[in-house]
Design goal:
- The protein has 506 residues and is an alpha+beta fold.
- It is built from twelve helices and 25 strands.
- Strands 1-2-3-4-20-14-25-10-9-5 form a ten-stranded antiparallel beta sheet, covered by helices on one side. It has a five-stranded antiparallel beta sheet with strand order 8-11-23-16-19, with no helix packed on it. A two-stranded antiparallel sheet has the order 6-7.
- α6 runs antiparallel to α7.
- The chain starts with a helix and ends in a 12-residue tail after the last helix.
- The C terminus is likely disordered.
Length: 506
């Protein structure tokens, strides 16, 4: 009996314990009360956030790169209504074809608009860029030097285009160059155009006859009626000597010293006189505007596309110069453009220039040279100081020999290029001013033509004229626009013949 009672009591305690364990949450194991957590969802969310952050950073970098390329290379032709399209440049070789700008009447309303001067990037010597300038083939542009920024474009002209340009030049007629080399055995002349003694020059410049020369007196008589009788370099040296004097006036002895130095530049420092610029060739000028031969207009449009400059600048620049070098012909090393000085004005903007400027100089932002024929021997284009670490005018004289004298030292130039028909060279004569306009003259653009030894050399120069003074260039273009509009009004009033009915210059 007692045993039965003990068993019943034990069963009641067990049932009570089981009931308490089921009712109390604190007695159950901890793992049984945890909520299930989906770890895969948390990992996916973090991965998504990281991916989105990297994606936004990538998009921002792409936008920043596009803005950099846009503002660094320039927007191309900023002139409204411009017809010229930029050349398509691609390093990978795949480029889009842009049609060449059509020839036709100048967009005169564009002349007064503002624009910038984009420059082609050289990257490094030997770098090749692919161009789409002609419809039937791709062109390669190779960087030859960075000082100056110089490019070579083989096949820029076709064989037919070279032949037409040469024939047009022959039809127009060529004239001999004005500066030729002296005959052997004769001392070269370095006298001014007016054969005057130093005392006579001093007396003529001394307007008030007080025995002292002031800057205004030198400026007022620096030009003769038929041209400049003091070259820009000579005049610059005289004015520099004048400014070096404490009184800014020169007596006869001081003027004699300064004047003699200006007539013999480089002699005082180096002990040897620099060779005067000499050349021997025949040349002519070919008009490339409306009404000219279609090949000439095509070349001008191709230059516009190559340089990516506003078509207005190219249209208002000098005509195409064609030069013929026969046996022995050459040209000493020189710069195509001139440095900017207060006493000079650009020849192409003289209409809007300062009438009191001392002399006119050539202002050529860049040069595009066309080889119209190949040469059997000689006739190389030489750049004596290309890619030198530094430029020193006195260093041009080495071992008593002037490197600018291509007749004697052509083989010593840093860079020499053999003429090949159809090849074009492009180089910048000026540096950039850092604000999208033309800066100082690039001294490294010094170049010349070696004597032709066998064969005939035909070349053509296409220059783009730009005034280093942005406001001066703008005034010039506004003046051209006004004159052209006035002329157009007169032509409309009298109903003139069309260009095809009028005789046009070649």
């Amino acid at each position: 009996m007692e045993d039965e009672m003990e068993e019943n009591l034990m069963q009641r305690e067990e049932s009570s314990d089981s009931g308490n364990s089921s009712s109390s949450p604190f007695n159950s194991p901890l793992r049984s009360t945890r909520l299930p957590i989906q770890r895969s969802n948390v990992c996916s969310r973090a991965y998504f956030v990281v991916v989105m952050v990297f994606f936004h950073v990538y998009i921002l970098n792409v936008i920043a790169l596009l803005l950099y390329v846009h503002y660094n290379n320039g927007p191309g032709d900023l002139v409204s209504g411009n017809r010229a399209s930029s050349a398509s440049v691609s390093e990978s070789g795949s480029s889009l074809t842009h049609p060449a700008p059509p020839s036709g009447e100048l967009h005169v309303e564009d002349y007064s608009q503002s624009f910038s001067l984009p420059r082609i990037e050289g990257i490094r010597v030997g770098h090749v860029q692919h161009l789409s300038l002609v419809s039937d083939r791709m062109l390669e542009m190779k960087t030859l030097s960075l000082k100056p920024l110089l490019f070579e474009i083989p096949g820029f002209l076709s064989e037919e285009e070279c032949r037409v340009v040469v024939q047009l030049a022959q039809l127009k007629g060529l004239m001999g160059s004005q500066t030729t080399a002296p005959s052997q055995g004769h001392e070269e002349s370095n006298q001014p155009l007016l054969s005057l003694s130093t005392e006579e020059v001093f007396s003529l410049l001394d307007l008030n006859q007080d025995g002292l020369l002031q800057k205004q007196e030198i400026v007022s008589h620096s030009r003769s009626r038929d041209g400049t009788w003091l070259s820009p370099d000579n005049l610059r040296q005289i004015l520099t000597g004048l400014e070096a004097c404490p009184t800014e006036m020169l007596n006869l002895e001081e003027f004699r010293r300064v004047y003699d130095m200006s007539q013999h530049p480089g002699q005082e420092r180096s002990g040897k006189r620099r060779t005067q610029f000499k050349q021997r060739n025949k040349h002519t000028w070919l008009y490339q505007g409306s009404g000219s031969h279609h090949v000439l207009q095509t070349l001008r449009n191709r230059v516009t596309s190559l340089t990516r400059l506003p078509s207005t600048l190219v249209e208002l620049s000098e005509p195409l110069q064609v030069i013929r070098y026969e046996h022995g012909d050459f040209s000493n090393a020189h710069h195509d453009s001139s440095p900017s000085h207060s006493e000079t004005t650009c020849a192409h903007t003289r209409l809007a220039g300062n009438t009191s400027a001392l002399t006119e100089v050539s202002c050529r932002y860049l040069t595009v040279l066309f080889y119209l024929s190949s040469v059997e021997e000689g006739g190389e284009t030489t750049f004596p100081v290309a890619d030198n670490r530094t430029y020193d005018e006195q260093a041009l004289i080495q071992d008593g020999v002037d490197l600018t004298d291509t007749q004697e030292t052509c083989g010593r130039g840093n860079l020499r290029l053999k003429p090949t028909a159809g090849t074009a060279l492009l180089w910048y004569n000026h540096l950039s001013d850092g604000r999208g306009w033309m800066g100082e003259l690039d001294e490294y653009s010094l170049h010349g033509d070696c004597p032709v030894k066998r064969g005939v050399k035909w070349v053509a120069n296409s220059w783009v004229n730009v005034d280093p003074d942005y406001q001066q260039q703008a005034r010039y273009q506004r003046l051209v626009a006004q004159r052209h509009q006035a002329k157009s009004g007169i032509e409309e009033h009298y109903q003139p013949l069309s260009h095809s009915d009028l005789h046009q210059d070649l």
